[in-house]
Amino acid sequence: MNIAYCLRLKQIAILDVSIIAIGFVMRVLAGGMVVDIWVSHWLVLMTFLVTFFLALSKRNDDYRIYEQTGIKPRVSISGYNKTFINEATAIVGAVTLVCYIMYTMSPEVIERMGTRYVYLTTGWVLAGLLRYLQNMIVFGLSGSPTKSLVKDHFIQFCILGWLASFFVIIYL
Fold first, then answer.
1. Residue 142: CB atoms within 10 Å
2. Helix (H, G, I), strand (E, B) or coil at 57
């Protein structure tokens, strides 16, 4: 898959970000096999959706570079425009949120966590996704998810709030 991606598939819009997401899913599945742990379908879905979301936001940054310089950072950018990228990223973000809600309300999570209130962490996930979209669409900050995590205090607050709410729900 990596060879096909490098030779041709990275040049095809939508397929390029799909293969990136599939690559991350394959890493998760391979890691599970190596340590002999069954990988939850929820982890597979969330890995795919989050990496697809981030890859689309990176295409937004590539498109912005193309608009500003006239130089295509990658061939696949011809299959994108700003409206499509923004709407596709919003759709994938919404599907990610729905998947997260389904995960938090699934019987296996309720049983494993010992509570049915994990869904209350959803607000933090929604706020984090919306902030990332805001950074991408409004502020033009979509080039590096790592920079967003390190520099954006709102996203950091969402992550801390998410972790704290898990702690409260599970242990108090």
1. 25
2. helix
Q: What is d(CA 54, CA 50) in angstroms, rounded to the nearest whole number?
A: 6
| E strands, 57-134, in order | none
Place of tokens 């599939």: 22
Q: Which two tokens stand for residue 26?
A: 């394959």
Token representation of residue 170 = 């599970």
The domains of the chain are located at: 2-171
For the full predicted model, state whether its pTM sits above 0.90: yes
Both structure tokens of 18: 């799909």
Closest listed residue to residue 152, CA positions, set 171, 133, 172, 126:
133
Instruction: Report phi then psi at 8, rounded to 5.
Output: -145, -45
148-161 pLDDT per residue, tens: 889 999 999 999 99
